[in-house]
Amino acid sequence: MTPAPYTPSDAPAAHRCATLKGVLLVTVLALGISQAAALPLFVQLGLSPLILGIVAGAFVGNVLKDRLPACYAQGIHFCARALLRVAVALFGLRISLQEIAHVGWPGLVISLLVISSTLAIGLWCGMKLLGLDRETALLTAAGSAICGAAAVLAFESALRSAPHKSAVAVGSVVLFGTASMFFYPFLIQAGWLHLDAQTAGLWLGGTLHEVAQVVGAASTLGPDASHVATIVKMTRVMLLVPVLLLVGLWISRTPKSGLASGKGRLTVPWFAFGFLALVAVNSLEVLPLSLREAVNGLDTFALTMAMTALGMETRFEQIRHAGPRVLAMGAILNVWLFGGGLAITLAVQRLLG
């Protein structure tokens, strides 16, 4: 029997099939990455599935770049964009206003000062001192200032920047955040820094990059420091959306920004408001704990898929071009977070503690 001729009505079905293949590939990779992230070695290093996802994704994407069928690109791009936005919105279920209020004004003021100063220093150093484009400088500064890879993902989705810019920004966050996770507690335990549990928790939560890094570092200092550090860190996470809105307003006033959108403005999409809405829902305590834990687990996996897809869209030659300058910027920001962040913490504690 002669096969039926192709008609335009077949196009949507073919498109969905191609997208599904790419999504399934990313899902399988993310499953393996999630299993690997649970190994004791990676747990001790504080390397979350998100971090391993972008590394593994970049490796697979570059090794298979000439062997992977072109149709898979649609599904990979879907995971790196649409799925990413849903996952960032769901991140709001991890935060409640009650937890933030528990730490009080010191935690909020430290978070605001650390975020604003780190973003300002990062943009100035990245663009003026190191000659980076605004997207790369902003992604790297946001990752250092707010919440590591999750902040890079949120800004990347709003900026619609090239995948390699997110990859180098995440690389900087991983390198310096992981080093700080071990270095900060060592200084305290060795007696080089004399900080009580409250102050240590405020400092760690206010300056370390990733949520996992904060938890790992603070857990070595006892439950009191760990509790304070986690809440302060989640306060910084909650400030992600207000910062997106303010940065978007700033960029919209500078038309010649050179952003990927070509319109000179940062688009703040629906996921930002979804994030805030879910923070409010979580604060009302209307959802069962089991449901919130299940959604948070799915959200972590969705973020892992998004990071894996971003890595697969990244090419090593693009990273090599900006890598050294981004690492230099990350080093400068890490020095500021250590010294400047400690000074901010002590000053706020003295005034408001």
TrEMBL record:
Q: How does it sit in the membrane?
A: Multi-pass membrane protein
Where, per UniProt, does this protein localize? Answer: Cell membrane
Spans through the membrane: 22-41, 47-64, 103-125, 137-155, 167-188, 234-252, 264-282, 326-348
* The organism's place on the tree of life at top rank: Bacteria
Record keywords, A-Z: Cell membrane, Membrane, Transmembrane, Transmembrane helix
User: Which Pfam families does the UniProt record give?
Assistant: Cons_hypoth698 (PF03601)
Q: Where is the signal peptide?
A: none
Question: Which family, according to UniProt?
Answer: Belongs to the UPF0324 family.
- UniProt protein name: YeiH family sulfate export transporter
From which source organism is this entry?
Pseudomonas parafulva
